[in-house]
């Protein structure tokens, strides 16, 4: 029989230990607390107090709709179940507030304005990435056995994650055909703080991406791997500062792509994949809404809830040999 000892050892998964397990354990417990998702501030702003509008007036504020949508996504409920949960919760709390019915919850989901809770301060180290969320169509088993059909529909979500705190700083939902590079500027428009660095995979290796990043954050480090057949954009005799992409190409030609990734710190990009893994593990990789506007709300509520979970506590892990 062939000797597989070396192969097994080389493929052995790295083992990590958590330094702050008691605090992280308490944070995991708090994720199931209703008081986390239904705060006193939400109750005080439950009734609509905005400007008058044409036609029928809103009875409930965006904060009320946001709170109920958050309960719906965190506890994987339907609109009717969410209505029943909040009604029973108000009865137990003896709160004299009416509750939006499931039709109102669905209708307001098309237009509600969401806010991403953020705590990160100072220059941000951002990682941009994207992934897919299934709307409807065959499951993975059927696709593997028989292939996929045209009814299989996806949406694409794009995020910018702060590597130091694990927060989602910006998020957008698009159709499946939208390229990653097209969403860079809209994502940056959601960020008011200064940016220290931006990392992304080869899909962001576009001229307009560099132009946008240099205009938004002139001093930020841009960590985007050039394509394998990449050529210099700005030659040495140009009367301009060295282009960061050209500097990366020259470094790779001299030292190799692997060495560039280590020296530039490009491996921090994996933290975006970790955030997307957490997103899909907690909320699933599906969207239940059928309209694009409502799907965007459903996705935004999940990002908001994920940031709140991050604020409750994150693991401080370290690799052991």
Describe the structure.
This protein has helices at residues 5-10, 21-30, 34-37, 40-44, 62-74, 79-93, 102-108, 140-146, 184-189, 207-216, 244-255, 257-264, 270-283, 292-312, and strands at residues 15-18, 124-136, 153-162, 168-175, 195-199, 221-223, 317-320. The chain is an alpha/beta fold and 321 residues long. It has 2 domains: 22-113 and 288-317, no CATH class; 124-276, Nucleotidyltransferase, domain 5 (2-Layer Sandwich). A hairpin with a 5-residue loop joins strand 3 (153-162) and strand 4 (168-175). The mean pLDDT is 89.
Which key phrases capture this entry?
five-stranded mixed β-sheet; 2 domains; Nucleotidyltransferase, domain 5; single chain; 321 residues; two-stranded antiparallel sheet; 7 strands; alpha/beta
**Separation of the first and last Cα atoms:** 29 Å
Q: How are helices and strands ordered from N to C?
A: HEHHHHHHEHEEHEHEHHHHE
Please state how the strands of the largest beta sheet are arranged side by side: 4-3-2-5-6
Compute the CA-based radius of gyration.
23 Å
Helicity, in percent? 40-55%
| Tally of structural domains | 2
Structural classification:
alpha/beta
- The CATH first-level class of the largest domain comes to Alpha Beta
* Annotated CATH topology of the largest domain: Nucleotidyltransferase, domain 5
Largest sheet: 5 strands, mixed
Average of per-residue pLDDT values: 89
Mind telling me which CATH architecture of the largest domain this is? Answer: 2-Layer Sandwich
Q: Strand-residue fraction?
A: 5-15%
Tally of DSSP β-strands: 7
How many helix segments?
14
């Amino acid at each position: 029989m062939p000797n597989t000892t070396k192969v097994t050892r080389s493929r052995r998964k790295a083992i990590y230990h958590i330094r702050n397990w008691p605090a992280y354990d308490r944070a995991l417990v708090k994720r199931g607390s209703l008081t986390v998702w239904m705060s006193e501030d939400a109750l005080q702003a439950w009734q609509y107090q905005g400007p008058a509008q044409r036609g029928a007036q809103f009875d409930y504020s965006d904060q009320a709709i946001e709170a109920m949508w958050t309960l719906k996504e965190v506890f994987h409920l339907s609109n009717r179940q969410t209505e029943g949960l909040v009604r029973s919760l108000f009865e137990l709390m003896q709160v004299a507030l009416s509750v939006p019915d499931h039709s109102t919850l669905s209708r307001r989901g098309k237009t509600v304005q969401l806010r991403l809770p953020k705590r990160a301060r100072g220059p941000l180290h951002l990682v941009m990435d994207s992934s897919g969320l299934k709307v409807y169509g065959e499951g993975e088993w059927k696709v593997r056995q028989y292939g996929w059909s045209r009814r299989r529909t996806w949406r694409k979500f794009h995020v910018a994650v702060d590597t130091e705190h694990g927060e989602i700083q910006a998020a957008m939902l698009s159709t499946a055909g939208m390229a990653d590079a097209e969403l860079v500027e809209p994502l940056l428009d959601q960020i008011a703080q200064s940016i220290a660095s931006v990392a992304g995979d080869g899909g962001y290796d576009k001229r307009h991406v560099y132009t946008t990043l240099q205009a938004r954050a002139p001093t930020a480090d841009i960590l985007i791997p050039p394509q394998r057949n990449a050529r210099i954009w700005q030659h040495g005799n140009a009367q301009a500062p060295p282009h960061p992409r050209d500097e990366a190409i020259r470094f790779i030609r001299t030292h190799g792509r692997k060495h560039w990734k280590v020296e530039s710190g490009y491996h921090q990009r994996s933290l975006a994949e970790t955030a997307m893994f957490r997103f899909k593990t907690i909320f699933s990789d599906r969207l239940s809404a059928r309209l694009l506007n409502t799907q965007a709300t459903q996705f935004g509520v999940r990002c908001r809830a994920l940031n709140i979970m991050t604020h409750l506590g994150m693991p401080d892990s370290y690799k052991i040999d």
